[in-house]
Amino acid sequence: MAYSMDTVLGDILANPAALELMDSIIPGTSKNPMIKMAKGFTLGKIAKTPAAKIPEAKIQEFIDAANAKGL
After folding, report:
1. Which residue(s) pair with 67 in the sheet?
2. Is residue 35 part of a domain?
3. What are phi and psi of 67, to 5 degrees?
4. Who is most buried in 2, 23, 28, 51, counting CB within 10 A?
């Protein structure tokens, strides 16, 4: 699966290796109490949600790393 800003967060949550990578790039992601509520959001929507407090650059860093690793 190639990741993009159109990837749904739920797909990442279902992939332990991808979630571990996301946690390494965006610390605390898997422990965030709002994560389950956002599982239907795309990464692009999360990047544009001020309450998420995750810069688009960090999400893009995850996307690039996940695609490079073939996750």
Report:
1. none
2. yes
3. -70, -35
4. 23
- Judge whether 4 lies within some domain: no
Q: Show pLDDT as tens, one digit a residue, over the chain (71 residues).
A: 799 999 999 999 999 999 999 999 999 988 888 888 899 999 999 999 888 889 999 999 999 999 999 99
Q: Both ends of the chain: CA-CA distance in Å? A: 7
Residue with tokens 């309450």: 51
DSSP, collapsed to helix, strand or coil, labels residue 27 as coil
- Is 1 inside any structural domain? no
Nearest to 48 by CA among 6, 3, 10: 6
CB-based contact 9:42 (threshold 8 Å): yes
Distance CA 18, CA 39 (A): 14
Number of alpha carbons in the 13 Å side-chain half-sphere of residue 28: 6
In this prediction the pTM is: 0.91
